[in-house]
Amino acid sequence: MTNLKEYSKKIVQQMIEVWFTGFKFGVCIVGAEVAVATIQSFMPNSSMSITVHLPELLAYVGAPVSSGILGYLLKAAFENREKIKIFRNKEVAHDEYSDTSSDRQDLGESREADLHGI
């Protein structure tokens, strides 16, 4: 099982590195487009038009980030659910095998209160 975890960690790490490389490349391209579009805006007789692909870059950034956040939240929710189940099972097992020590403690406290006149 540890081999599978290590393998999946490596795959995720490589995916993130590729994503960041694509992001850096996209920022360079959009930056160049903005620079060219700005220069062209000062040229009155320019027949060439440049479009800036900023929405596509933002979609490239936003889609993996939003799905990554959603995936992380789902993973955390399922892990917490399992932790709660394990905790409840331990608590139930502890309550079944304990000899009502909490009841004895309550009785002991009430006896002490009676002795002290509270």
Tag the structure with descriptive keywords:
118 residues; mainly alpha; 2 domains
Description:
The protein is built from three helices and no strands. The protein is an all-alpha fold. The chain folds into two domains: about 50 residues; about 50 residues. The relative contact order is 0.05.
Radius of gyration: 31 Å
Average pLDDT for all residues = 75
- Strand residues, percent: under 5%
Low-pLDDT residue spans? none
Overall form:
elongated
Main sheet overview: none
- Secondary structure category: mainly alpha
Q: What is the tally of helical segments?
A: 3
Structurally, how many domains make up the residues? 2
- Strand segment tally: 0
Helix content: over 70%
Short description:
The protein has 118 residues and is mainly alpha-helical. The protein is 85% helix and 0% strand. The longest helix is centred in the middle third of the chain and has 44 residues, at 54-97.
How do the helices and strands line up, and which of them pair or pack?
Blueprint: H1 2-41, H2 54-97, H3 101-116
Helix pairs in contact: 1-2
